[in-house]
């Protein structure tokens, strides 16, 4: 099941929701399409500030987030999540090797940090593992 276009998630599926955060709409849509056949609800956000609002309202089990974004970047968003004591698992992505190293240095507690472009089947495998889904 997918909730990519609305922000209403039935209570029974809240523990199996994914939030995709990327400032590039095409990238978000590709990730949503890649995950759409999994038994998860999917939210989308264009930056960290939007992501925090969705996280506070719905507490998704997993956030897949770009590091470099306007308004609030991925690492700053993860810092704020740490302040909230959130148990949400995080997958950070970046196409910038400098950001990749910085993220590893600052956020060793995230589920994984991956370099873009990532093959969608690899990302899908990370999602299945992070959520404990049968894949």
Explain what this protein looks like in three dimensions:
The chain contains five helices and five strands; from the N terminus they run E-H-E-H-E-H-E-H-E-H. Helix 1 links the parallel strand 1 and strand 2. The longest helix has 12 residues. Helix content is 40%, strand content 19%. Helix 1 packs across helix 5. By secondary structure, it is of the alpha/beta class. It is globular, with a radius of gyration of 13 Å. It has one domain: Rossmann fold (3-Layer(aba) Sandwich).
Highlighted features:
single chain, 19% strand, alpha/beta, 40% helix, Rossmann fold, five-stranded parallel sheet, 135 residues
Outline:
40% of the residues lie in helices and 19% in strands.
| Number of strand elements | 5
Percent in helix: 40-55%
Strand order of the largest sheet: 2-1-3-4-5
Number of helices: 5
SSE topology sketch:
Elements: E1 17-21, H1 25-35, E2 41-45, H2 48-58, E3 62-66, H3 74-83, E4 89-94, H4 97-106, E5 112-115, H5 120-131
Parallel strand pairs: 1-2, 1-3, 3-4, 4-5
């Amino acid at each position: 099941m997918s909730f990519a276009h609305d922000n209403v998630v039935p209570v029974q599926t809240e523990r199996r929701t994914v939030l995709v955060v990327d400032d590039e709409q095409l990238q978000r849509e590709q990730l949503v399409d890649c995950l759409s056949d999994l038994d998860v609800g999917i939210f989308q956000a264009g930056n960290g500030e939007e992501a925090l609002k969705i996280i506070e309202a719905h507490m998704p089990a997993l956030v897949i987030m770009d590091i470099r974004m306007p308004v609030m970047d991925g690492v700053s968003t993860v810092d704020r999540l740490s302040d909230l004591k959130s148990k949400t698992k995080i997958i950070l992505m970046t196409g910038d090797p400098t950001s990749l190293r910085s993220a590893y240095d600052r956020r060793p507690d995230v589920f994984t940090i991956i370099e873009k472009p990532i093959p969608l089947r690899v990302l899908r495998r990370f999602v299945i593992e992070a959520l404990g889904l049968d894949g």
